[in-house]
């Protein structure tokens, strides 16, 4: 009986660890995904391009990067409480126009969840030091 409980406990621990790793992305693979974004965005600098800089985007309110002219929809979303965290970025990257109706971003989105996880891992490297 104790053997079965131990076996179940070990199995749960192993599967839990595997689940955590499945959610994490690969920053190196994310750099490749970012090639689709870098025509309009920078991540390693705080410089706006056609799109706002993504340097420090995680934790930032939507539509709030200084010096960038956002759509009214994006600034309104930020004022209404949209903050870029992992969940909101996943939704936005999957389908930007569905997440923020009226966004100026023309990109159709990333359909592969692994690409999104990898891109988020890449962007996490460029968080501003507070």
From TrEMBL:
This is Cytochrome c. InterPro entries: Cyt_c-like_dom, Cyt_c-like_dom_sf, Cyt_c_1A/1B. The lineage of its organism: Bacteria, Pseudomonadati, Pseudomonadota, Alphaproteobacteria, Hyphomicrobiales. The keyword Electron transport applies. Keywords: Electron transport, Heme, Iron, Metal-binding, Signal, Transport. Residues 25-127 form the Cytochrome c domain. It comes from Rhizobium mongolense. PROSITE patterns: CYTC. Residues 1-22 form the signal peptide. GO terms for molecular function: electron transfer activity; heme binding; metal ion binding.
